[in-house]
Write a structure and sequence with these properties.
The complex is a heterodimer.
Chain A: E1 18-25, E2 32-43, E3 58-65, E4 74-84, E5 107-117, E6 122-130, H1 144-150, E7 153-154, E8 160-167, H2 174-177, E9 207-216, E10 236-251, E11 257-269, H3 274-278, H4 281-289, H5 299-303, H6 306-314, H7 320-324, H8 330-338, E12 360-363, H9 397-405, H10 448-453
Antiparallel strand pairs in A: 1-2, 2-9, 3-4, 3-10, 4-5, 5-6, 7-8, 8-9, 10-11, 10-12
Chain B: H1 3-13, E1 22-26, E2 47-53, E3 58-63, E4 66-71, H2 73-82
Antiparallel strand pairs in B: 1-2, 2-3, 3-4
Classes of the chains: A alpha+beta, B alpha+beta.
C-alpha cells in the first residue's frame, strides 16, 4: 500500500497513520494547488456502531517547504473536537442525517485549521468547522453527496478545506504483492509460478479519512509569488504530512485519558511507498519519527533498494540487466530525495537543492494536464503534470514505482544502461477506481449498507 | 498516590517497569513528604513528571502541550524512592 500500516508501531495506531499524500495543480482551478492527506486507512464501510473518525488527541499537519533546506516554511495544522449529542443512545445517528447539522447526527466532529509560517506567525484560517458523517447507508445518510458538499468550507484568499470520509483512491493488489512480490499478470514468470491472471484492487471497497486543502499558489511559495517559469527553483515546493501525539497519556480508572507534554511526530508521508518498500523493518519506526531534512541517514536504501534485488530472484531470467547493475541508483535518489534537476527530462525540473529529503515535489509552473489527456504513468508516460511532479489522484503509483525500481528510469542518469524489456511492462494490474473531477477529487465513500451486502 | 495507580500510569505511557525509569502523575499542589508548602501558585490541569534518568537526575515535567526538562539529583532521588 502507499503507506497504509507501513511500519510496525503506526500499524497499531490507525487514527494517526498517514496512508496517502497528493499534491497537484488543480486541473479545474488554475493558480490553486490541491493537497490531500489521507489518514485512518483500511476502513470497512460497515464498521459500526463506532464509525471512523479523526483523533481529537492527534495533531495533523501538512507542511510545505519552498526553499532548499527541506524544513517547513508553511504549516497547516488540523485539530479535531468530537461532540456527542445524546450520550444516552448507542447510535451514531438517531435517525436520518439529511443535513450536516441534523440533530440526528449524534457523534460529530469539528476542526480548526491554523496556518503557521517559518517565523512562527500563526493564523487561524478555519475555526470549528464541521466534518460530514461517515457514509452509513441509504437510510441513515441519504444524499451523501449533499452532506459532503456542505462540509467543504471556504478559506481566506479563495481557498477551500474539507475533512471527512472518502473512498480510498489508492489501488494495489495487496494480496499478490505481499505474497512474495507476485504480480498476477506476470505470475506465470514467477519463481513459484501459476497461470497469469488480472490484478485485483485490494482497496476497492475501503474508505479513508481525508484532509483536503486547496489554496492559491501564493500561499505556499517563497515571497508569495505565482510561478510561471518551470526552470526556476522558486517554482518548486516540497510537501509532506505528519501526525503527532502528546508525549504522555494516562489512562484513568474511569476510562478517560489525560494527555500532557509536547507533541512528538509518530507518522509522516511524502512520496508514496517509501516507508512501505524502501525503508527496512529495523528503521521504519524511526523514519516515521524524524524530519525529512534528516533523510540522508536513509540514503543507502534508495541507492540499493531491496525490491530491485528481489525482482531478478523472484522472476528468473526476466531482469538480467537489472541483476547485473551494481551502481548506486542515483535515478531514484533524484526522483525521490532531491528532485529531478534541469537537463534530465526536457522542459522539466523539480529540484529543491542537494538536501536529501523525502518530499512530494511539485513544480507549480507546469500547468495541469486536462483530465482526459492525463497519463496515469505521469512523467514516464510523457505527462509532466503527473508523478513525480507532485502526485495526482489518478497517477498509477504502483506501476510507476515498480517500473522505476525495475530499472526503467536508470537511463535518465546513466545512458549506458539498457533496461530489461520487462521494466516497461511490469504492473500489479490493479484496476483504477473512479474519482471526482472537482474538489476534494477523491470519490464519495462506500456506504456500509451496500458494501456489506456485496 | 497509591502503588496501584503508579503501575497503571507506567502502562499508559508505555514505559516498562524493568527500566530504571520512573514516571508519576502529580495531582495539583502535591508536595513531597516532609516538605512545607512554600505558597507558590499551583498549576491547573494534569502535570506528568517523568523521571527519565534517575542516576543523572534528569526529570521532565509535562503540562498542557509543553514540557520542561531539568537536572535535579535531589528531586530525582525523592521520586525514585516513591516508585
Amino acid at each position: 500500500m502507499s503507506s497504509h500500516r507501513e511500519a510496525p508501531e503506526i500499524s497499531k495506531d490507525p487514527v494517526a497513520d498517514s496512508s496517502d499524500l497528493y499534491a497537484f495543480v488543480s486541473p479545474d482551478r488554475p493558480g490553486f494547488v490541491t493537497i490531500i492527506a489521507n489518514y485512518v486507512p483500511m476502513q470497512d464501510p460497515d464498521g459500526g456502531p463506532n464509525f471512523f473518525e479523526f483523533g481529537d488527541d492527534v495533531l495533523y499537519e501538512i507542511k510545505v517547504t519552498n526553499d532548499a533546506d527541506a524544513k517547513a516554511d508553511v504549516t497547516y495544522g488540523f485539530r479535531f473536537r468530537t461532540v456527542v449529542g445524546n450520550p444516552e443512545s448507542f447510535l451514531y445517528n438517531t435517525g436520518q442525517i439529511t443535513s450536516i447539522n441534523s440533530s440526528t447526527f449524534n457523534r460529530r466532529q469539528f476542526y480548526t485549521v491554523t496556518r503557521t509560517t517559518a517565523t512562527g506567525h500563526s493564523t487561524t484560517v478555519a475555526n470549528n468547522v464541521p466534518c460530514p458523517p461517515c457514509n452509513i447507508g441509504p437510510r441513515s445518510t441519504p444524499n451523501y453527496e449533499t452532506l459532503a458538499a456542505q462540509a467543504i468550507h471556504d478559506l481566506p484568499n479563495g481557498g477551500k478545506v474539507f475533512a471527512g470520509q472518502r473512498a480510498d483512491g489508492f489501488h494495489v493488489d495487496l494480496g499478490a504483492v505481499f505474497d512474495l512480490l507476485d504480480l498476477r499478470p506476470f505470475q506465470n514468470l514467477h519463481l513459484i509460478s501459476t497461470a497469469a491472471k488480472p490484478g485485483v484492487n485490494a482497496l476497492a471497497n475501503k474508505n479513508v479519512h481525508t484532509i483536503a486543502l486547496q489554496v492559491p499558489f501564493s500561499d505556499l511559495t517563497r515571497g508569495g509569488i505565482t510561478p510561471h517559469d518551470p526552470a526556476a527553483q522558486s517554482s518548486v515546493i516540497g510537501v509532506w504530512t505528519t501526525a503527532s501525539r502528546q508525549r504522555s497519556a494516562v489512562i484513568e480508572h474511569d476510562g478517560s485519558t489525560k494527555h500532557a507534554g509536547s507533541f512528538t511526530q509518530v507518522s509522516r508521508l511524502g512520496n508514496p511507498l517509501i516507508n512501505e518498500v524502501i525503508i527496512p523493518l529495523g528503521d521504519k519506526d524511526e523514519w516515521n519519527h524524524v524530519a525529512p531534512a534528516t533523510d540522508k541517514q536513509f540514503l543507502k536504501y534508495y541507492e540499493h533498494p531491496e525490491v530491485a534485488k528481489l525482482l531478478p530472484v523472484l522472476y528468473p531470467g526476466v531482469f538480467p540487466h537489472l541483476a547485473a547493475y551494481g551502481k548506486d541508483r542515483i535515478d531514484l535518489v533524484a526522483i525521490l530525495l532531491t528532485g529531478i534537476p534541469a537537463g534530465v527530462v526536457p522542459g522539466f525540473q523539480n529540484s529543491t537543492g542537494s538536501t536529501p529529503a523525502d518530499l512530494l515535489r511539485l513544480n507549480l509552473a507546469i500547468p495541469a494536464t486536462a483530465p482526459d489527456k492525463a497519463s496515469p504513468a505521469g512523467i514516464v508516460g510523457g505527462d509532466l503534470a503527473g508523478f513525480p511532479n507532485g502526485r495526482r489522484v489518478t497517477d498509477d503509483i504502483v506501476t510507476i514505482e515498480l517500473r522505476a525500481l525495475a530499472g526503467a528510469t536508470i537511463p535518465l542518469v546513466d545512458p549506458s544502461f539498457t533496461p530489461d524489456a520487462a521494466a516497461s511492462l511490469v504492473t500489479d494490474g490493479s484496476p483504477m477506481p473512479a474519482f471526482l473531477s472537482t474538489f476534494p477529487y477523491l470519490n464519495t465513500p462506500h456506504d456500509g449498507f451496500d458494501v456489506g451486502a456485496a | 498516590m497509591s502503588q496501584h495507580s503508579r503501575r497503571d500510569f507506567l502502562r499508559g505511557v508505555g514505559v516498562t517497569a524493568a527500566a530504571a525509569t520512573v514516571a508519576a502523575i502529580v495531582p495539583t499542589g502535591i508536595a513531597a513528604a516532609g516538605e512545607q508548602d512554600d505558597g507558590s501558585p499551583t498549576p491547573e490541569g494534569t502535570v506528568v513528571v517523568y523521571l527519565r534518568d534517575p542516576k543523572a537526575g534528569t526529570v521532565t515535567v509535562m503540562k498542557g502541550e509543553s514540557e520542561t526538562t531539568v537536572t535535579d539529583k535531589v528531586l530525582a532521588r525523592k521520586l525514585a524512592k516513591l516508585a
